[in-house]
Amino acid sequence: MLLWSSLAACGSAHKATTPTNRPSQPLAAAPADPNLVTMTAESTTALVTASSLTELGLRVRIVGKALPDANRPPLNLGLVLDTSGSMEGKPIEALRASAKALVGKLRDGDRLSVIAFHSRADVLVNSASITADTRKQIDKAIDGIQARGTTDLAAGLAQGLSQVVSYRMPAGINRIVLLSDGVPNTNVQLPGTIAAIQQNGISVTSLGLGIDYDTQLMTQIARDTGGAFHYLDEPESIAAVFDEELSKMTTVVARNVQLTIEAGPGVAFQPMPGLTNVGNGKFTAVIGDLAAGEVRDLMFPVKVTARGDGSTVELALATLAFDDVIGKSGIGRREAFVSTKASSDAAATAGAVKIGLEVARIRATAAGATLEAITLARQGQVEPARKRIADAIKTVKAAASRLKDEELEQLGRELDGLAKDLAKIVVPQQQIIGDTQPPRADMPLVPATAPAPIEHSLRKAEQKASNVVRGARN
């Protein structure tokens, strides 16, 4: 009885205090997608051979439309700089000057943190909002940079991530620029740090200076996070690359761009650097940030099984997801479906090949082979590397003859030169600590290298191939 009385009293009290009804306020409309990002997909041929396996390519083009400068988003940048002893002299001088020049080109309201790594990582500048006063303080900190110690790249990158994440700009561009000229002390922490960078949707631009940095590591960090890799043969090149990257960062229209491709029945995507097989016929590629005016042409080689004459071949469904930076409309999505026809008419099939796209497919396949061969050679697997590049040369020269294409003829000559360079790589004997103790498991192996002029050539070839694979226009 007491319970019912209490409930009744509560109900009465509620009724007594209920306000009169008022007109409901209309919900604010969600921001509209400004359509600054477009994606198209196209096969390298309109017909595949009905009676046998066909090799072709799928070109995915992603475009960022032009953007007025006044609309550019704010930037949250982590500058992670190698200040180890090997940077002594011109490299450290150029680094200080280039970093200060970059600070001068940031806008008020941008954020910058500066991390120097040597035998440890030092946060020289905690993430600071750019103002007239903070510019002076940052310049003073950069002036104090000295070359000393070893190369704790892993700690430097972890500190850079911490700074950028701690001061993340939800409506801005969050980016890390990493510069190094040497092999890191240890690689143990790097996979976890790279995974954390990916999870936070941050791209890393990596710059390898000289011929002693770990080229495989620096290219992988950039590729896995959707950033760009740059090989710098001279310290004087640092400022120009900083300028180029800053220009792209400050005109971003989409961030955290990721491509997912679902293969059609009987369609097999061939392995390519940066393309991850996630199972169930799906593949992903991290694109990173997309700048206004930027065009990314990604080419994916595929093989298609035999089909019935006249049947439709469903090649793939491409889906692009990204954060809309300018319109702030949330997660943007684009889709593109690609199909073709099977034919038993050999003449029609040969005539259906789109020459420009077929050349691009051969170039992309050769670029993937180049990166694989250089990686194998640096791991000491020289013979497999030579075979890989020999196979690529055979494919490129056959296509050049078939298509009568001068670009592929030139590529064949470049690959001939690369094969000669690979033959000059020297595999170092790993040093033993003491008489019986083997090297530590966390100590990275010294990569196989070639004489300095050959190393310059190899690293240029690697950067060129990396750009082709990521769809960047050289």
- Strand order in space, largest sheet: 2-16-15-10-13-12
* Major sheet: 6 strands, mixed
Taking pLDDT < 50 over at least 5 consecutive residues as the criterion, the unreliable ranges are: 1-20, 431-436
Q: Count of helical segments?
A: 12
CATH superfamily of the largest domain: von Willebrand factor, type A domain
And the CATH topology of the largest domain? Answer: Rossmann fold
Secondary structure blueprint with pairings:
Layout: H1 2-17, E1 37-43, E2 47-49, E3 54-64, E4 75-82, H2 90-105, E5 111-117, E6 121-129, H3 132-143, H4 153-166, E7 173-180, H5 190-199, E8 203-209, H6 215-225, E9 229-232, H7 238-249, E10 252-263, E11 267-269, E12 276-279, E13 282-291, E14 295-304, E15 312-324, E16 331-343, H8 346-351, H9 355-378, H10 382-403, H11 406-422, H12 452-469
Parallel strand pairs: 2-16, 4-5, 4-7, 7-8, 8-9
Antiparallel strand pairs: 1-3, 3-14, 5-6, 10-13, 10-15, 11-14, 12-13, 15-16
Helix pairs in contact: 2-3, 2-7, 4-5, 9-10, 9-11, 9-12, 10-11
